[in-house]
Design brief:
368 residues; mainly alpha; 15 helices
Length: 368
Amino acid sequence: MAPAPPPRLQSIDALRGFDMFWIIGGGWLVQSTANQTRWQWADTLAAQMHHAPWGSFAFLDLIFPLFMFLSGVTIPYALLSKRDRGVSTLRLNLKVLRRAVILVALGVVYNGGLQLKPLAETRVASVLGQIGLAYLIAAMIALHLRSLRAVLIATAGILAGYAALQLAVPVPGHGAGVFTGPGSINGYIDRLLLPGKLLGKSMDPEGLLCIVSASSVTLMGVAAGLTLRSGASSPYRKAALFLGIGAGMVVAALLLKTVYPLIKSLWTVPYNLLAGGLSLVLLAVFYTVIDIWGLRRWSFMFQVLGLNSITVYMAHKMVAFPATAQFLLGGVAAHSGAAGPVILAAGVIALQWLVLYLLYRQKIFLRV
């Protein structure tokens, strides 16, 4: 008899929804609150709602790698459990490849690909494309190397190889170890091989080498997922392990950045370690509160977002939620004085959540 599928951890969906909350308007809500109230806590949080300058880090710079990390956490549940129940590796390989192709295509659509502009004016690289291709790399490693130890070795190998490329390989006209857009090995490879328009003109933050580097963050998630799925240790021990390793990775990143810059757009190794470490810490907290302590009701809002994350990401781009919120709540906002912008920001989030809640009630989930 094939083994039963492992139970779904609600903390993973909730943490993914927490991540999506900031993408669909959470940052706007915080900034609106700070602008209207000048409360110190709101000002401090609002300062983290912008991408940090080149070479530094803000909370908003965690949102993308956290999603990639969580996509890795699901691999042992979504793929390896199927293999354990007898699904062929070939079929699973094709499933992963199909997912990558669909996400790359959706990424081009998100970038305006339906405008049918010439390739030179169309951005091929994208957030969704990077998620899909990094997932492809991580899933193939997980499917074929199988063990936690092998996944950790592969992760370390990618980080070490990527560091060697960035630090030691000379770029024509610039030399080695240059961490600017034009002078980096990332920019050189993107200009040489990546079709379409580059977001940064001289390089793309979701470019070819960035995808390879980002796959290490997805593999960190795979390692966490394998640990969660294993029955070798207690839930509290797993949470403590995540917390300790995550904190250690954060310290390592902060020490390493003194000699190797921490740059999000280039997905440098210190950035990956910092993002992966913070992701592990957040997973430890959500896993402890939701799945160990059983305190789940507060997280329902986030779970609704997390269960249809690709849907809300695409809808956020394609549907005029701000205009709808203005139509429905504009009068209330106009008569609410300084609270008006906050009401509109909250309305945009509420509209998106209600759409997803209706899909949730009907058990409609966009799976890629």
